[in-house]
Amino acid sequence: MQAAATREIRNLKDLVAFIRSELKPKGKILTPFNVITAPILAIGLGLIVYRFIFGLGTVVHEVPGFPWGIWIGFNIMSGVAFAGGAYVLTFVVYILRSEKYHPIIRPTVLNGFLAYLFYAGVIVVDCGRWWNITNPILGNKFGVNAVLFLIAWHFLLYMLTELVEFSPAIAEWLGLKKVRRILNSMTIGAVIFGITLSTLHQSGLGALIMMGKPNIHPLWWTEYIPVLFFVSSIFAGLSMVIFEGSISLRVFGRQMTEEYRREYPDIVVGLAKTCAAVMFVYLFLKALVLIHGRHWDLLNTPMGYWYLTEVVGLVLIPCLMFAKGVRSRNLTIIRVAALLTMAGIIINRCNYVFIAYKWYVPLSERYIPTLAETWIAFTVVLAHIWTFRWIVNRMPVYREVPEWAKEEEEEKIIRKEVAQWKASRM
Amino acid sequence: MDRRTFLKTLGAGIVGLSLTPSGVMAKMADGRVEFMGVLVDTTRCIGCRSCELACAEANGLPLPDIEDDSVFEHERRTTVTQWTVVNRYETEKGEVFVKKQCMHCCQPACVAACPVKAMQKRPYGPVTWDLNCIGCKTCIFSCVYDIPHLEIEKPAPKIQKCIFCWERLKEGKLPACVEACPQEALIFGTRRELLEEARTRIYEHPDRYVHHIYGEREIGGTCWLYLSSVPFDQIGFRTDLESTALPEHTTGFLYAVPFILVLWPAILLGMYNTTKREEE
Ligand code: SF4
Ligand code: SF4
Predict the structure, then answer these.
(1) I need a surface site. Which of A43, A68, A260, B190 has the fewest CB within 10 A?
(2) How many of the other CB atoms lie within 10 Å of CB of A318?
(3) Tens of pLDDT along B38-96?
(4) At a CB cut-off of 8 Å and minimum separation 6, what does B158 contact?
(5) C-alpha angle with apex A216: A213 to A217, nearest 5 degrees?
(6) Domain annotation for chain A: domains and CATH numbers
(7) Is B39 a pocket residue for ligand 1 (Cβ < 6 Å)?
């Protein structure tokens, strides 16, 4: 591996040969994970192709009045919230310059980028007239005042900025020194643009459902849905970072440096602290909304219990667990809290999309996902994981950056110091 | 204009209302365009379903068997092949028949939601659908009357819903259902005049009608208006709707977008420079 990373690529032929050698699988093929997931993936991809040829109706049931299901609620709405870790961490590392979190920035940005790639991909599967999908971007009629129009643009632009943020790793992988230098200099611009876009589309996903006010249970509908979506994307994203990190530690542990392993518990505790604080803010907002909405009576109905399950069981409790985990530096509690938080986010987003949506419709006429639909939803998640693994095994995501790139970084620091030294003598 | 047509339309007094080339549309003296609408007087409807048949004929949909009364056993929704349906309700005043179709909201949520303007509010009121649609179903999600439907069984699905016979209106014809109704339960005219007519009927027969015109205020008002002898919740209408038009719920967010787009990068850049200086 190290050999590949340090090899110089001089011309196109080298590049092609290199990429070809990298396309081959690395490591053992017949691992339990592969054996279980490969068939799921294969069947799922088949189902997706089938859906495109024969129509949506072949994989989802028509349930009148329930246009959106788990693809929107789980893959897109929750997936994008989980991808929020990228903008939060780029903010902390590049804007606030907290070096502590630098080691996890690459996996997080990569994970975020792939989340957008695959979950925006789900939009194509879900859209009935998917061949028109470029219309919001390239069409001749723009619904400029439609929230979804904004989201479409933001998704596209944000994917580009995340690609720019991650691209130095690609350049290091390919050994492209000059390119890396250029890409590296673009990072801060991409970060600022990326955070702005994220603020807007995380809240935008909330704004998308606001027009459905009469269709959404009053305990959930509030004019602050966009704010709640934005705030919850912060702890959703960080929980995902904790979750992904603990799995990666097991799977890619061999690639990680000693230093990383030593610092890792501190990083997790720091993330958990932020999660607890932001969740507290979120709960505070939720409480304000509840008081403001005066729907106390509704709490004592089946929907009310469901609401409390979400807010108490899957926000308040994990929030306290995070706090506890931070105090006792107990990574296990923190990991469990992260899982609960993520479950809470999925339930929250699905509530808006099909559970608390048209809550007055009796169960027999409600949307229930089909097997094929669920299968596709998980296929996309698996495709995301496979791609993540493929990249981590090849590019410097967890492993150290190649020597030449390190030298370059050092040179940059020296140059800066020389300049400062000169300036101080003037 | 024969007597029948006259009874089905209101608004002979409007300048420029015509049933000839420019279509059945009203322009006021000052050139402003008015929304056209239909007033449905449910006290007159006999449940003959002629409107259903006429709608299917006019729009190339499968023809319903209107002799078959068994359809009244369950409340029906509109579907991709039935843009309008007549339902029967058991009420405190006996059986009431109610025609259902798109309400052609004055400020439609489906139109505001559409990212490609495939759903459009036409100048005279009809809400229509166009082929550049991406099938995202946000219009369906946002409609409170459960009206638009996507043909998910087809590889190239369309959104199907009542389009207020937009093409017929342009040709100067009445909506097919209005033309077919033998009872004058449906009358076509400008929304303003239909409201006047509805109010007159309530005033003249205060015992016959509940004193509410459905669609006058609901979610910002609708072009289709209803009169009823019984409270509207007994005949399948949502009575919990506020008068705020649904698109207004997102305007706050949409106004904030340009501000955030300009302010956020400036703030972030400022922070970046502050931390940079601190570091040095
Ligand atoms: S009733 Fe529904 S489909 Fe018809 S205009 Fe209103 S929002 Fe649109
Ligand atoms: S499904 Fe079509 S008509 Fe409806 S909002 Fe989406 S693009 Fe517009």
Answers:
(1) A43
(2) 28
(3) 999 999 999 999 999 999 999 999 999 988 889 999 999 999 999 999 999 999 999 99
(4) A129, B129, B131, B133, B150, B151
(5) 120
(6) 30-398 (1.20.1630.10)
(7) no
B56 within 8 A of B82, measured Cβ to Cβ = yes
Pairwise CA distance, residues A118 & A125, whole Å: 11
Provide the residue ranges of all domains of chain B, joining segments of one domain with +: 1-280
CB-closest option in B115, B241, B260 to A148: B115
Which residue of B117, B144, B260 is in closest CB contact with A142? B117
CA torsion through residues A401, A402, A407, A412, sign: negative
Interface ipTM: 0.88
Which pairing describes strands B36-41 and B85-91: parallel, antiparallel, or unpaired?
unpaired
Residues with CB under 6 A from ligand 2: B 113-116, 118-119, 129, 133-139, 159
Strand pairing class (B224-227; B36-41): parallel
Element (H, E) at B127: strand B127-129
Buried b (16+ CB within 10 A) or exposed e, A67-80: bbbbbbbbbbbbbb
Report the candidate in A299, A304, A225, A241 with the shortest Cα–Cα distance to residue A274: A241
Q: In testing the pocket of ligand 2, which one of B128, B132, B137, B143 has its CB within 8 Å of the most ligand atoms?
A: B137
Class in CATH terms, B1-280? alpha beta
Question: Which residue's structure tokens are 């904030």?
Answer: B256
Question: Which residue type is seen at A130?
Answer: W
Residue A146 CB partners (closer than 8 Å, separation 6+):
B112, B113, B114, B115, B138
Closest CA to B223 of B249, B188, B197: B188
Query: What is the tens place of the pLDDT at every residue in A301-323?
Result: 999 999 999 999 999 999 999 99
How distant is the Cα of A254 from the closest Cα of chain B, in angstroms? 34
Q: CA nearest A8: which of A176, A179, A171?
A: A176
Write the DSSP string, B22-88.
Answer: T-S--B-TTS-B--EEEEEETTT-----HHHHHHHHHHTPPPP-TT-GGGGGSPPPP-SS-S-EEEE
The closest residue, in CA terms, to atom 4 on ligand 2 is B139
Q: Shortest Cα distance from A146 to chain B (angstroms)?
A: 5
- Which residue matches tokens 């972030």? B268
pTM, two decimals, is 0.90
State which residue of chain A sits closest to B257, comparing Cα positions.
A200
